[in-house]
Amino acid sequence: MGKGRIVLEARKLTKRFPGVLANDRVDLLIHQGEILGLLGENGAGKSTLMNMLYGLYRPDDGEIWIKGEKVTLHNPRDAIDRGVGMVHQHFQLVPVMTVAENVMLGAEVIRNGRLDRREARRQVRELSQKYHLQVDPTAVVEELPVGTQQRVEIIKALYRHADILILDEPTAVLTPQEANELFQIMRELTQQGVSIIFITHKLKEVLAVADRVSVMRRGQMVGSIPTQGATEASLAEMMVGRKVILQVEKAEAQPAEVVLQVEDLTVTDQRGHRIVKGLNLEVRAGEIVGVAGVQGNGQRELVEVLTGLRPMENGRITIANQVISHSSPRKITESGVAHIPEDREKHGLVMAYSIADNMVLNRYYQFPYAHSFVLDQEAIDAQGSRLVAEYDVRTPSALTPARNLSGGNKQKVIVAREFSRPVKLLIANQPTRGIDVGSIEFIHRQIVAQRDSGVAVLLVSAELDEVLGLADRVAVMFDGRIVKVLPIAEATREKVGLLMAGSET
Amino acid sequence: MATISTTGEASIGQRITEGLFKRVLFWLIAAIIVAIIIAYQQDARVTTAVLAATLRQSIPLILGALCGLLGERSGVINIGIEGQMLLAAFIGFMVNAWTGNLLLAVIAGVLAGGLLGAFLAFMSVTLKMDQIIGGTVINILAFGLTGYFYQVGVTTAGKLLPVPLGSLAELPLVGPVLFNNPPITYFTLLLVVVIHYVLFFTRWGLRTRAVGEHPSAADTVGINVYFMRYANVTIGGAIAGLAGVFLTLEAVGSFERGMTNGRGFVALAVMIFGKWTPFGAWGAALLFGLATAMQTQLQFFDVQVPHQFIGMLPYVLTIVVLAGFGGRARPPAASGQPYETG
Fold this sequence. Notes:
heterodimer, A: 6-stranded mixed beta sheet, globular, B: mainly alpha
């Protein structure tokens, strides 16, 4: 991949939001036909930078140069006109419209004053052949799998003659195999002269596909280096600003008696579709079972049933020899289950309550936090202050509303609440989603410590690396079933990836 | 592929109910046509009168529903249709009373409706107010203004008269019902076709629907979400204004306090029943128009039911329709949600 001329350059871009310096004199540079990886933690300022390059935000200071010309981008249209295309992390497709309609939206093919849908379909087919992006232009977008929707997004950009493509966390929703397909597509695009900015926080992927990598930290550009010669450890250090232990250190598991037993579980959703279809699973005390799978294969529903948030249709769930198949969330909690929910702001915390109040949500009605019907606020606040110190929650005080905390600190509050009482089973659903590397390390260590003290841990995560790093056994979930349980020693990325995609091995 | 598309399954389920819906609709229309033919043989005069009244009653509902669906298709719920109609009815009436010029009166009423539409757009798009509250503001405003300024005893110089369309008007049954109507009625039927075409076959329509379904998708391809919403809601307001002047200048010829009598709200039911499509709304409006026409007609017969119950007919229908179909129909996804750029 030869380095062509510079097609896009950001010079000392600065963007302030109330109270935050989101981008602080950021420089970025990309050559023609190059894949540039843009690394950074959540909140490092990657999205802000890209939104400025795409005309969604106006920089407070600094310059943007596209193809040798200094430009001012007032809106996405200005960026599109200059050949910048963006595939957003959350797809920007209208679900009820067809592929062709979505592609032409905003740049419609018009004949005699009306939409020329046939011509639009022809153009989509042409692009799809030229770039090997398989897609049916007449399909309705909401019926397409995410991988295909992503291809529609790429075609949408190419249809607008984009030759600088920004991909924002494109692999977050893909299986490892689908991600590899995407990398193949990216390489082909660069062959045809397209330049790609690839945003991610996954180090492996940057090393696999990018030519060069730029790293951001806390709104600043830390540096740009060629990926040749870079290692995961060196990139992680640039990203976080200190040495990071990527590998979770843990001893061999000592599995004991079965704590969680799920037999023939079926679950239907509100619309009557069966989501979990006869699932069997077993978790023993002192081991971590990691559930791997592409989002939307029933993991969420499984966790909701186990924690009593969703009724089951059929089957039998036993926790520590107690049948909890139709128990209320409180009964399940009291039988010794800790739960780190997937959506911490929706199911984990009451945002308007203080940290201290949130810390006792699972036992506020018990002694010493309540005396018959009256809460003992002093006892609650004391417990809050104690846990804030013990779990290193960064906050001015335990009386601060949970809303004011960062993602990582919110998660620490939940972990503190769930781990500060004796439990038998821990159900952790996406425990580190969207939080900083420091907090991830902390939470991973806590989970392993729970395991070592004899707790049975069920870990559900969309990050395959997290499952492979933490679990003692890996249960692969596909289409509402556990298709295979592998001991960690046998669970390679390739094998698990294939199982996640539904192919039996 | 690797993912199970739950939404895909949902839309298959939806297609099944849609198929059922179409079959029910087909038999319903067939039954109505048979009923009309039988009724015509029984009593030609009454049947013609009922059908003419059906069309007359349906006009403000169609117009109101078109107003509502333009708003919701672009993402703004308009429950201020009632107020937009009422103020337009009043302004149209007053301008006619002062100037005696019917055309000028119609234009004034339509402009008044458009102005209230723009006001709703300002509240919900620019101020990002709760859209239900915005609509309620308009309703209260219109009731208050018209009630305050209305003087009893003001009379107008005439109203819009039927224009027979040549020999078409001579045909039995369909002649007097369809081809011998005043101008706003013709215009309304034309408008149904025009809006259907614009919504589903033009650039404007594609963008309007995109803005109502997924505004950030539209924004990221360079479509001005705010502009599309302003334009559609304002045009909708003007159409509601036309419904208002229809009442004072074409149907009745005078103004009364609160004369819209809930039609703006029934129009919303019509819009939902018609699944946010112009032709659907037309069909639904005819059904409601028929209920109203029957109600008037039944009062001439000696039916052994208190007339209050017969008078309830259109409103009972509204409740039944909304309870039965409201849940199943699928509104534009972003309807009612303010949009913030970036």
